[in-house]
Each structure stands twice: as structure tokens, then as C-alpha cells.
Write a structure and sequence with these properties.
two-stranded antiparallel ribbon, DNA polymerase, domain 1, hpI Integrase, Chain A, single chain, 13 helices, mainly alpha, 2 domains
Length: 318
């Protein structure tokens, strides 16, 4: 292996060129790596390691970086970032070290960067059907914002879309006939992977009622009604998160409910109805079945509760 005379920090732009040109990594993924690697750059600068070269990186440096991450605070919550988030920072560092290995630049092997152990069973928050119905009926359909918000909530539960996928929808994708009926829509999901999502007749009707009140020519399906007039009207992910929180509070539902909770609720309902896990994987756009398997913990727990209630093994009355 050759030694690289340029400091690690100066190699990072080349790393992103490598991701873009040779690996074909999506812009979104590159942005994520960039965000996480900024923390590593800051760590190097704060510890007078700006000139540290790849071959000079040691286990001790990585350990100090892990300690540095453990003290990092979540800006919104004002508390230490979770183990899972810390692992994302470390995965980004691993990717950089893998780049050095690919380029035959002497450096620490990526496997030397150990990830923090997380609890094996990931908890998934979801709403049951009664809670979902309560949430969906909360917006005021007599106002244009209420019609839009009802359409947004219905879309989340009908399709299981991620927030970024929902805000990217365009009007031309939703071809509604006089009599609303179930629609199949092709979208480009996470990582640039296409998939088909399904809009229920009820959801299509909600979108139809919302679009009837639209007088603009904006191509975005969901638009904002506030903010600067000279900017795009397309609604932002943060605005959608605020909309969900608003109606969650109004409906008296758990305040921890987010747009992703609705995605979880969609998947959980499908699984409870007996839909095969592989199909749910396709509906959600998961690349790995292991990601979808988190929902089996929910149904397993539900089955266990039912068994204990109705078949607990207690003595039968004679």
C-alpha cells in the first residue's frame, strides 16, 4: 500500500467524487455522508489533527472520536445523541476508510471502527385502526388547508410513503377520473429505487376534494399556503411533520406520533391482516427483508397477549 501525503481532511472531497462517479451513490446518500463526516472534521480540528494523514490514523484516534460523539447533544432535545445515531457517524467514517483501501492508501482498516451495540429488538411505535380513524377525521374539510391536510394523512396511511416521497409527489401522477377509484402510482423511492404504491379509493376521493379547491398551476401535489410567494410552493418535509403533530395533538393521540409512525401503522395493519412479509417489503420499498422483520415483533406480541387472555392454561370451570 502507498502512503498518502495529503491530510485526511483534504481527501474527503475526493471520497465524494469516488462515491458519485465510481459507486453511483445517490445525491441524498452523499448528503448524509457529508453531514456525518463534518462531525469527524470538526473533531480533527478541535484536537489539532487537521494535518493528520490517513496512515497516521490510529485506534486511539477512533476511540477519542467515539468519546467525542458520546458527548454530542441532540440540538432539538438537548440530550446526548442515541447509540443508533452515533453508529451512523461511525458508518460514515468506515465508508471513508473503505475508500482509502480501494485506492490502496495506507490507513486503518474499516473493521477497526467498532459500532456501539444496540438492543436487539427495535421498538416500533404505531397507531391502531381506531386511533388512525380518529386522526384522519380531525382536519376541517370546510377549509382549503383542512382538505389538504386530510389528503396528506389519508395518503400516508394508504401508501406507507416516507415523508420525502410524499412531498415529491406531483399532480400529474395522480390521474383522477370522475368516479374516484384505487390508483397505482409509480414513484422513485429512497436510494433512487422505483416502486409502485397504491392509493385507496377513500384516499383518492380526499385528494380529489383537495385539488378541486386548487386554482394554481403548481405541479406539486401538496403545496404550502404560507411563506414567500417567490419560492416554490411545494410543501417541505418539516411542514408535513408539523401538520401531523398538529392533528395528533388535536385528536388526543400519543405526542410521539410522527409521519413515520403512520408508515409503521400501515405496515403493521397489513401484517395483522395476514399479508406476506415479502409483499410488505415491496410495499415499503425496503431493500433488505431484515428491515421489514421489525414488524413481526409487534404481531408476535399481539398473538402472545391474545393467547394469554384466551388460552392461559388456567383450570377450566366444571
Amino acid at each position: 500500500m502507498k502512503k498518502e501525503n495529503s491530510p485526511i481532511i483534504e481527501n474527503i472531497p475526493r471520497f465524494f467524487e469516488f462515491l458519485d462517479i465510481e459507486k453511483g451513490v445517490s445525491n441524498k446518500t452523499q448528503e448524509t455522508y457529508s453531514r456525518f463526516l463534518k462531525s469527524f472534521i470538526l473533531f480533527l480540528e478541535e484536537n489539532n489533527l487537521r494535518d493528520l494523514k490517513p496512515h497516521q490514523l490510529t485506534d486511539e484516534h477512533v476511540w477519542k472520536y467515539r468519546v467525542y460523539l458520546s458527548k454530542r447533544l441532540n440540538k432539538r432535545k438537548g440530550e446526548p445523541i442515541t447509540k443508533r445515531t452515533r453508529n451512523y457517524y461511525l458508518i460514515a467514517l468506515r465508508a471513508l476508510l473503505n475508500y482509502f483501501a480501494d485506492r490502496n492508501i495506507q490507513s486503518l482498516p474499516s473493521e477497526k471502527v467498532k459500532l456501539a451495540k444496540e438492543s436487539k429488538e427495535k421498538t416500533v411505535k404505531f397507531l391502531d385502526l381506531k386511533q388512525i380513524e380518529k386522526l384522519l377525521l380531525t382536519p376541517n374539510n370546510k377549509t382549503k388547508t383542512g382538505l389538504r391536510d386530510r389528503a396528506i394523512l389519508e395518503t400516508f396511511f394508504s401508501t406507507g410513503l416516507r415523508v420525502a416521497e410524499l412531498v415529491s409527489l406531483n399532480r400529474e401522477q395522480i390521474k383522477i377520473r370522475e368516479k374516484p377509484e384505487t390508483l397505482e402510482v409509480s414513484i422513485i423511492g429512497k436510494g433512487g429505487h422505483p416502486r409502485i404504491v397504491y392509493f385507496s379509493e377513500r384516499t383518492v376521493r380526499a385528494i380529489y376534494n383537495y385539488l378541486k379547491k386548487r386554482k394554481d398551476k403548481e405541479k406539486a401535489l401538496f403545496i404550502r399556503y404560507r411563506g414567500p410567494k417567490d419560492a416554490s410552493l411545494r410543501i417541505t418535509p418539516r411542514s408535513v411533520e408539523s401538520i401531523v403533530k398538529k392533528y395528533v395533538k388535536k385528536a388526543g393521540l400519543p405526542l410521539t406520533t410522527t409521519p413515520h409512525t403512520l408508515r409503521h401503522s400501515y405496515a403493521t395493519d397489513l401484517l395483522a391482516q395476514g399479508v406476506d412479509l415479502r409483499l410488505i417489503q415491496e410495499f415499503l420499498g425496503h431493500r433488505n427483508i431484515a428491515t421489514t422483520q421489525i414488524y413481526t415483533h409487534i404481531t408476535s406480541q399481539k398473538l402472545r397477549e391474545v393467547h394469554q387472555k384466551f388460552h392461559s392454561g388456567k383450570e377450566m370451570k366444571e
